[in-house]
Amino acid sequence: MTQSVVVQVGQCGNQVGCRFWDLALREHAHVNKTGVYDEALSSFFRNVDSRKADSGACAVGGRIQHLKARAVLVDMEEGVVNEILQGPLREVFDSTQLLTDVSGSGNNWAVGHMTYGSAYREQIVDKLRKAAEHCDCLQCFFLIHSMGGGTGSGLGTRVLSLLEEEFPDVCRIVTSVYPSAEDDVITSPYNSVLAMNELTEYANCVIPVENQSLVDIVNKIKHMSDGGMAGPVIKKDSTIISGRGGTSGMEKPFDAMNNIVANLLLNITSSARFEGSLNMDLNEIAMNLVPFPRLHYLMPSLTPLYTLADVNVPTRRLDQMFSDAFSKDHQLIRADPKHSLYLACALIVRGNVQVSDLRRNIERLRPSLPFVSWNQEGWKTGLCSVPPVGHSHSLLALANNTCVKSRFIDLRERFTRLYRKKAHLHHYLDVEGMEQSFFSEAVTSLSSLIEEYNQLDATKNKVIHDAPRLSIAT
Amino acid sequence: MSVVTVQLGQCGNQVGQELYDVICCDAQQGQRKPYCKASCERFFRQNTRGDLVARAVLIDMEPKVINRSMRKAAESGRWTYGEASHFSQKQGSGNNWANGFCVHGPRHREVVEELVRREVEHCDRVSGLMALMSVAGGTGSGVGTYVTQCLRDTYPKSFVVNHLTWPYEAGEVIVQNYNSALTLSHLYQLSDAVLVHENDTVHRICSRLLRIKHISFSDVNKVIAHQLGSVLQPALTADSQGVYSRSPVGIDWQVSAPSGAERSRSLTGSSFNTSLANLLILRGKDVYSAETGGFEDPALYTSWLSPDAAFTSWKSPVPFNKYEKSATLVSNSQALLRPLDNMVRNAWNMFASRAYVHQYVRFGISEEDFLDSFTSLEQLVSSYSQLC
Ligand SMILES: Nc1nc2c(ncn2[C@@H]2O[C@H](COP(=O)(O)OP(=O)(O)OP(=O)(O)O)[C@@H](O)[C@H]2O)c(=O)[nH]1
Ligand SMILES: Nc1nc2c(ncn2[C@@H]2O[C@H](COP(=O)(O)OP(=O)(O)OP(=O)(O)O)[C@@H](O)[C@H]2O)c(=O)[nH]1
Ligand SMILES: [Mg+2]
Ligand SMILES: [Mg+2]
């Protein structure tokens, strides 16, 4: 079994991360009835017995003592992390995993990346190494952060480049929360574009999630569960939006949104944690979904999101789940993949689902989904036998689709609107180590990324002939 | 005469487990001592407690599948895998042939060779070695190819056979055509015979003939295991005087095509399936009176090989798996040409855009290596399509 380490940076990163730990604990509690620390648990948790010497780590197979998250928490202010330390998850982290400062990055990428990045570099590397030493086979780092603020965006991407430097062979999967157009952080376009330059360079995969989409989903779920619709009811024990039954008490403003992101992470990691007849290892994600190194943005969609009462026959519901994954209202980032070009697509399925179900649904959906000419069969599938708590099955689709560029074009526009007026620029340029060229480089990188997607898009409705085959002497 | 198998990767370990199950079940059916004895000796050894232990080595780069296969074998109550006949690591090859072939294979060469050697030493006589694997993933295909190469070197005189599971056309692995191309181009030079099961075909058998509603890999593997079992189980031949001596994998397929023939690429044009050689295995009731003349029609074969040489039949009055009668055909023919050609075309189209190539370069497979593989596969496609 392999292990992964979650690195959560900034307010958003830490809040999403905590929802993940809460739900992961719940999922394991549901599956693991014996109280034995098993392989599945060991992939994201250490088992620590404080009475024992040398950090008290216990091997797989023994009783569960204290579970500690394989996580590093970084924020440049104390509020969020302190709240975690006073909350129900406090036992899951210990002080050696935390790194905080007091004043935050003030929504300034440069402060996070340059000022704090340089000041805390050694300490961060130290904590990462410690976390890595606790693993016997470290497979993946999951970085969680937001794009719009200063710490997650600036310091988060600094951490990413440190990961690549220190652990070049360990996969780096980044979950990035993109700001919505009406974000309250005015400088969020700057921060996002500057961060994207780093993501494009140093991540193996980026899973972009958009706050606007999360808000829309949460509103729709609320509307349904408030009895706005006759008949269908949301299951109360579902892990999708509710924190109930978990370790946390009161719900906070972002909780419902963050739960959705946490579910995304639970699904991605399911195959690494549990058995299945078609395992999908974490290192298979980049291998199958990233045809060209820079084009590693994978758009997530999750089903079921709007769990309805169980009235339909099971197979119809299952097939519906596959259809939903390609519909607009299940995308965690605003996009319309059906009307753009797929470079590749992964289906990560959990629960009692068989290959024949996969085959049937791929056959059914394929005609309506345009794939790039050289990857007409660009499907990657994984079957994990353990479903999420409260569901019989679930599906996470990760699409490498050219429509992600529309989000990037939006972002570039918002960036340019500020940059033309040089608005707030001095806040950045005052930071030691920051230069104006960083802005122009970042926007150039973004433009060339968009251009790469454009070129692939341009092949869409063209008749592409097979490449002339090698001729051999006979 | 015994056969040692090496099960590699998820698919190899899942198919292998079903195979031993079928063979063991079949061998222990009814009162047929010599058959049972021959079958057991071929595929199993006995440990000190007298249990049947499969002559198998289990290899994967991650532990989950091997654990499950060993558990399932033990649960059968009839046979087990050797307690120390397996080797796994913590993290799979990530569907990357280069990772399997260039990194994991060489790194674990000694351990794997030692496990195989121990299994071989348990045999009085070894008639062949068989590697079971899929071609689409990273471990079965990459490590499997590397291990086949090692077996070839270590046992130059033994029969080395590969059983390959061909991926579904719309795959579960996106880079499956690359992995398949790299595997086949190597095995083509290493292996004495390559037995192939296409997942799509077997899946169709499950849905149309067996009418299974929710087809699982286990269903697919049972069909594969039955077909493979009926090929591999002992059979009497005309010259064997009632002794089950026929080498189970002694199918002589090494027929090379004549050179200089006109090259034709119109695969869709003629739908006739020309064979190089066919092996028909009949088991059960009335096998000696069965009419097999249809298989001896010269029109089925190439003009340069007479049906006498191209057609073989094995017959055994012992029924297989409780079937009153059963027939199994192993065919070296153009049947695989279409999937092979599709695979090469898809891989080549992808390669033309250099998509995913960087993932292979990272582990030491260069663009030239790809080109070499494509060249030898085009040769293979061309040889098969010229059969007439
Ligand atoms: N989905 C989600 N978005 C959040 C959350 N917290 C903040 N955001 C978003 O993240 C962006 C602001 O970044 P933060 O993560 O608050 O900032 P930070 O990384 O702590 O950086 P500084 O506060 O500048 O030091 C805005 O777009 C917010 O809408 C959260 O818990 N969930
Ligand atoms: N028939 C059959 N095919 C399988 C089975 N398991 C996997 N496959 C096929 O095998 C291919 C995937 O290869 P795997 O064997 O899972 O990969 P692996 O050898 O373990 O390699 P990595 O996981 O990449 O390290 C796909 O084409 C699957 O359709 C099985 O039990 N039966
Ligand atoms: Mg903050
Ligand atoms: Mg595997």
UniProtKB/TrEMBL annotation, chain A:
GO BP terms:
microtubule-based process
* Pfam families in the cross-refs: Tubulin (PF00091), Tubulin_C (PF03953)
Gene3D superfamilies this protein is in? Helix hairpin bin, Tubulin/FtsZ, GTPase domain
| Subcellular compartments | Cytoplasm, Cytoskeleton
**Which residues belong to any copy of the Tubulin/FtsZ GTPase domain?**
54-276
The principal location of this protein is: cytoplasm
> Which InterPro entries does the entry link to?
Epsilon_tubulin, Tub_FtsZ_C, Tubulin, Tubulin/FtsZ_2-layer-sand-dom, Tubulin/FtsZ_GTPase_sf, Tubulin_C, Tubulin_CS, Tubulin_FtsZ_GTPase
Cellular component terms, GO, for this chain's entry?
microtubule
SUPFAM superfamilies from the UniProt entry:
Tubulin C-terminal domain-like, Tubulin nucleotide-binding domain-like
Which superkingdom does the taxonomy of this entry point to?
Eukaryota
Q: Which SMART domains match?
A: Tubulin, Tubulin_C
Q: Which GO terms describe its molecular function?
A: GTP binding
The UniProt keywords, alphabetically, are: Cytoplasm, Cytoskeleton, GTP-binding, Microtubule, Nucleotide-binding
Tell me where in this chain the Tubulin/FtsZ 2-layer sandwich domain is found: 278-413
Q: Which family does it belong to?
A: Belongs to the tubulin family.
Q: What is this protein called?
A: Tubulin epsilon 1
TrEMBL record, chain B:
Residue span(s) of domain Tubulin/FtsZ GTPase: 40-240
The family this protein is said to belong to = Belongs to the tubulin family.
Q: What does this protein do?
A: Acts as a positive regulator of hedgehog signaling and regulates ciliary function.
| Gene Ontology cellular component list | centriole; cilium; microtubule; nucleus
Cellular location(s): Cell projection, Cilium; Cytoplasm, Cytoskeleton, Microtubule organizing center, Centrosome, Centriole; Nucleus
On whether GTP-binding is a keyword of this UniProt record, the answer is yes
Concerning InterPro entries, the annotation shows: Delta_tubulin, Tub_FtsZ_C, Tubulin, Tubulin/FtsZ_GTPase_sf, Tubulin_C, Tubulin_CS, Tubulin_FtsZ_GTPase
What Pfam families does the annotation carry? Tubulin (PF00091)
- Record GO biological process: cell projection organization; microtubule-based process
**Identification of the protein by name:** Tubulin delta chain
Q: Which UniProt keywords apply?
A: Cell projection, Cilium biogenesis/degradation, Cytoplasm, Cytoskeleton, GTP-binding, Microtubule, Nucleotide-binding, Nucleus
The GO terms this record gives for MF are: GTP binding; structural constituent of cytoskeleton
- Give the highest taxon in the source lineage: Eukaryota
